[in-house]
Amino acid sequence: MPHLRSLLADASQRLADAGVPSPDHDARELAAFALDVDRIPVGEVEVGPDQARRFEALLARREAREPLQHILGSSVFRYVTLQVRAGVFVPRPETEVVAQVAIDEAEAMAATGRRPLVVDLCCGTGAIALSVATEVPTAVVHAVDTSLDAVQLATINADASHAANVTVGHGDVTDPGVLAHLDGSVDVLVSNPPYIPAGAIPIDPEVRDYDPPSALFGGGEDGLDVPRAVVAAAVRLLRPGGLFVMEHADVQGAPTRELALRTGEFESIETRADLTGRDRMLVARRR
Ligand code: GLN
């Protein structure tokens, strides 16, 4: 029977040859999944034929650059484990920093005894909304997405997280009436909208071939059609003093600050970076 150590070494090499950016990590994750354990055991471990076959099948999928998260069926975002699947955008680690800004604001408000009202526009799997809802339990969170697949998956994830303080609904941010019943009352509006410019085709097959284009491309040459709609929704939904946080591409710092500035409705407009130091989000306060 093969030993896990040699199977893993071989698997890592195959994934590296296929251009997978984190071959060791992915090989271990797939092995743990094949062996049905949380973490692969250390030392000399023999792998049975059924487990080896299972591992090989998973490995072949990853070698063909199917996203690891789709193969495993789940992804960890901050403290929540989210179901992920084809047709819905896979949450990214850099968005954890965007969620952090919304959480900090909601937490500060909750500390004063008020219940923060938080909106997540373009919620996808529900990653940001569920992080806010679970990390700030007194928050009231509304999440919407225009994709019915996303709404269904975010609802499943909300149920699984037992967060009773989050509502997931169908809503298109380009619809000027989305969440209109909350107009002028939202304390924190957070969004990771599609924003990739039309000409910037993603290089990684995991993104290019698997993330839904509607969740990637923001529309228009500059990719900012949907972000522009998010800014307009933020003006309408936020209460005076409410905080706006929106993820964007590293080249969109200045243009998104300009979008906020031009409305005349925001102050303290700034661009913040992610953990790799790249411009990643617009943060602004509603006047
Ligand atoms: N961050 C995404 C990517 O790198 C782009 C779309 C988004 O997050 N809204 O592919």
Automatic annotation (TrEMBL):
Sorted keywords for this record are:
Methyltransferase, S-adenosyl-L-methionine, Transferase
Q: Where is the signal peptide?
A: none
Q: Does the keyword Transferase apply?
A: yes
Catalyses which reaction? L-glutaminyl-[peptide chain release factor] + S-adenosyl-L-methionine = N(5)-methyl-L-glutaminyl-[peptide chain release factor] + S-adenosyl-L-homocysteine + H(+)
Which sites bind S-adenosyl-L-methionine? Answer: D145, N192
Task: Name the Pfam families on file.
Answer: MTS, PrmC_N
Give a yes or no for keyword Transferase in this entry: yes
What region holds the Methyltransferase small domain?
116-195
Name the residues that bind substrate: N192, P193, P194, Y195
What are the protein's GO molecular function terms? Answer: nucleic acid binding; peptide chain release factor N(5)-glutamine methyltransferase activity
Q: Name one GO biological process term.
A: methylation
Q: Which residue range or ranges hold the Release factor glutamine methyltransferase N-terminal domain?
A: 7-73
Q: What is its EC number?
A: 2.1.1.297
EC class, as a word, reads transferase
HAMAP family this protein is in? RF_methyltr_PrmC
Q: Sum up the protein's function in the record's words.
A: Methylates the class 1 translation termination release factors RF1/PrfA and RF2/PrfB on the glutamine residue of the universally conserved GGQ motif.
Q: Which family does it belong to?
A: Belongs to the protein N5-glutamine methyltransferase family. PrmC subfamily.
What protein does this entry describe? Release factor glutamine methyltransferase
Question: Species name for this entry?
Answer: Demequina lutea
